[in-house]
Design a protein that fits this description.
655 residues, alpha/beta, Immunoglobulin-like, eight-stranded parallel β-barrel
């Protein structure tokens, strides 16, 4: 059972709103729950805790190293001398602890660890550090998490923004390359510099949330944060912890949710990190068939170890408690679920039942989701899971993994493969567009066009598409229009919204100079209007996860490469018709069925001149004729512009 956050640490008084608290050394209950695998707020007890009680001034250190013979704190305050500040072991818990009275916030330190069983010695960064030196330096920094939050209004209402029926258009951001300062050596913006610029841009574009690629401290910048070691520390590359809090606070105060990438699937082998921490494979599996990730040559957590469970789940609650984040996108879930992931025969160990499912990882993910939702019912958990594992986004009590949502990788692959075809060949691949609806409501899906699709030689979204310059942009507008017409929440990686030409490069800023060109400006305008429509029209978001909210009108017109569909909200009056033409040939007198009579107004057309289109369409709207078609009682006679997505809404009839 999870410890009550207000009772698990005896002698502590807490004020979570301000981030201030008084710390006493680990109680026996803390130690017991940690070893049991049920202490989920270790960040309040382990690591370097600044004491401010009478008679206990200084910094209290606690680190888990059960196979160590000696552990000491070394740092700039003692000349990095391992003999000056030794720690003492706490019974049989494996925890080493001690108070250093003459240091304070800002002290730089590591743990010097000597193993019991071999000649192993190492200087290790603190697994629970709140702050680290700026890379390439690797030491930890004593720090507090005091911050005066001003986002109360958001925190009280965020349940509405994160609800299944709410619109959710996520802007995925890599902090180091969204925008840079060329006048100052091409340096990235700091957290505080990002706050007003990113907030204003996201609001202008109409996105509801941002998703930050991993901000947890990572030694290698080129890993984009996915090889992280600082499970309790935002990277110092862009400023101290309070500056990252300021960024989240600022976004919240401007109505924007914040989702963090969280990586419990693996961690890097850097010598100062948590791998081989006390001379043994403490956090990771010892057997490389379970402990080494073949794709990234990184360590895999030993999910069955109680203390590792406490560590990882504490990490997730830490970001919710101390940084007010609104949820997590959990990276590489598929690699956690399967013991044979990316392994050949003989390179993996079956589970106790002889199967390939990683039972310990499954239990960890389920417990993570239960604990997050117990502590923060309004927080989101999102799985990047690329296989057909069932019930990823279904509750644990029903046998699911317990996530709120899952990325629809199948939709992404099928759609991009289709869109890359020359339109003349698309007729032969029409099933790539309509196949999704066979499984669309088996999970709560997010449709992702993420960073993974614009790296490693894949090119930008724009460069994947066929045709001349105008046709490429028309195709990209069509891709986004089709994406927003489909059931499911939306995610778009930065740069895609204005048609970045080059593949994403983490060492450079986005190509912001392009946004003043007509085609790029038109695309950017289109995405902003799509987001506005998506947020405004209940039909496009209320029933994203329910089949009642979707109906094909015609999904089989492969010959003309068109699709037509109906979206609806809870109210039967909230109806939209969307028609997509995936060829550069205008379709005149194109008839589609309609559920109601009256005038159906053209409320959004990707070929409008405002978006650098050709300006074709149905003259703003069309009256439904009482001619049954496609199994519906009425029909519309439309002009479909080339390479277009067009949205129609029935006008309300006055009294």
């Amino acid at each position: 059972m999870s410890p009550n956050p207000e009772e698990s640490s005896r002698g502590r008084t807490a004020d979570r709103a301000s981030g201030r608290y008084d710390v006493t050394p680990l109680s026996d209950d803390d130690v017991y729950l940690f070893n049991e695998g049920s202490h989920f707020r270790l960040y309040e007890k382990m690591g370097a805790q600044i004491l401010n009680q009478p008679g206990q001034a200084g910094v209290y250190f606690a680190v888990w190293a059960p196979d160590a013979a000696r552990v000491s704190v070394i740092g700039d305050f003692n000349g990095w001398d391992k003999a000056t500040h030794p720690l003492r072991v706490r019974g049989n818990s494996g925890i080493w602890e001690g108070l250093i009275a003459d240091i304070s916030k800002g002290a730089v330190y590591k743990y010097h660890i000597e193993s019991r069983h071999n000649a192993y010695q190492a200087a290790k960064a603190d697994p629970f550090a709140f702050y680290s030196e700026i890379a390439p330096k690797t030491a930890s920094v004593v720090w507090d998490l005091e911050y005066a939050w001003r986002d109360q209004a958001w925190m009280e209402t965020r349940g509405r923004h994160n609800a299944p029926e709410a619109p959710m258009a996520i802007y995925e951001v890599h902090l180091g390359s969204w925008m840079r300062v060329p006048e100052e050596g091409n340096r990235p913006l700091t957290y505080r510099e990002l706050a007003p610029k990113l907030s204003e841009y996201v609001r202008q574009m109409g996105f509801t949330h941002v998703e930050f690629m991993p901000v947890m401290e990572h030694p290698f910048y080129g890993s984009w944060g996915y090889q992280n070691l600082g499970y309790f520390a935002p990277t110092s590359r862009y400023g101290p912890p309070q500056d990252f809090m300021y960024l989240i606070d600022y976004l919240h105060r401007h109505g924007i949710g914040v989702i963090l990438d969280w990586v419990p699937s693996h961690f890097p082998t850097d010598e100062h990190g948590i791998g081989f921490f006390d001379g043994t494979h403490l956090f990771e599996h010892a057997d490389p068939r379970k402990g080494i990730h073949p794709d990234w040559n990184s360590f895999i957590f030993n999910y069955g170890r109680n203390e590792v469970q406490s560590f990882l789940i504490s990490s997730s609650l830490f970001w919710l408690d101390k940084y007010h984040v609104d949820g997590f996108r959990v990276d590489a879930v598929a690699s956690m679920l399967y013991l044979d992931y990316s392994r050949r025969a003989g390179e993996w160990i079956p589970n106790q039942y002889g199967g390939r499912e990683n039972m310990e990882a499954i239990a960890l993910l389920q417990r993570f989701n239960e604990e997050v939702h117990r502590a923060y019912p309004q927080a989101l958990t999102i799985a990047e899971e690329s296989t057909a594992w069932p019930m990823v986004s279904r509750p644990v009590y029903l046998g699911g993994l317990g996530f709120d949502m899952k990325w629809d990788m199948g939709w992404m692959h099928d759609t991009l493969e289709y869109m890359a075809k020359d339109p003349v060949h698309r007729t032969y691949h029409h099933n790539k567009l309509n196949f999704r609806m066979l499984y669309a409501f088996t999970e709560n899906y997010i449709l992702p066009l993420s960073h993974d699709e614009v790296v490693h030689g894949k090119g930008s979204l724009l460069s994947k598409l066929p045709g001349d310059g105008w046709q490429k942009f028309a195709n990209l507008r069509l891709l986004f229009g089709y994406m927003y017409a489909q059931p499911g929440k939306k995610l778009l990686f930065m740069g895609g919204e204005f048609g970045q030409g080059d593949e994403w490069n983490h060492d450079r800023s986005l190509e912001w100079h392009l946004v003043d060109y007509p085609l790029q400006a038109g695309l950017k305008h289109w995405v902003a209007d799509l987001n506005s429509l998506y947020r405004r029209e209940a039909a496009l978001h209320e029933l994203d996860f329910k089949p009642d909210g979707f109906r094909w009108i015609d999904c089989n017109d492969a010959l003309q490469s068109t699709l037509s569909l109906i979206r609806r909200g809870y109210s039967e009056e909230d109806l939209l018709i969307v028609v997509c033409n995936f060829t550069p040939v205008p379709r005149h007198n194109y008839r589609v069925g309609a559920p109601r009579g009256g005038v159906w107004r053209e409320i959004l057309n990707s070929d409008a001149r405002d978006y650098a289109g050709s300006g074709q369409g149905s003259l703003g709207g069309v009256e439904a004729a009482p001619v049954p078609f496609h199994g519906l009682p009425y029909s519309l006679n439309l002009t479909l512009p080339p390479l277009s997505a067009v949205f129609f809404k029935r006008e309300e009839v006055g009294p």
